Prior knowledge:
Helix content: 40-55%
Mean pLDDT: 84
Strand content: under 5%
Oligomer: single chain
Low-confidence stretches: 136-144
Organism: Moraxella cuniculi DSM 21768
Pfam families: Terminase_4 (PF05119)
Amino acid sequence: MxxxxxxxxxxxxxxxxxxxxxxxxxxPKFAKITEIEPxxxxxxxxxxxxxxxxxxxxxxxxxxxxxVHNVEAFCMSYSRWRExxxxxxxxxxxxxxxxxxxxxxxxxxIINEAKTQMMKFGSLLGLxxxxxxxxxxxxxxxxxxxxFADL
Length: 151
């Protein structure tokens, strides 16, 4: 299929369906999650990230059991990024090989790959600013009082 990926119906409803196109009533329905503990296999750093973002994701009301693997992948990518950054901090951006030649620290490649994965999974979950702006329409459905409206 060419073109943009279609937005899930739940996201369209959250944003107030700005395009006013018909909503897909035949979209598969997965069980929504209201509470979930991090998997035991996550690293400590990944678990901290899980506990940081999961309440925010659950508050949107669009997270389902089918999305949990994306959260896991995001958290593990975050953990790998942090670990690789610590490795670069310890050994520097260049390391010396057995022949005395300076080479790029392999942890820099891990950093770049982990950041790319974080951006991909974060975007799928609405964790980056541009994705997040699409979720603000219906979440704040009450108009904000304008103190200057009576002027």
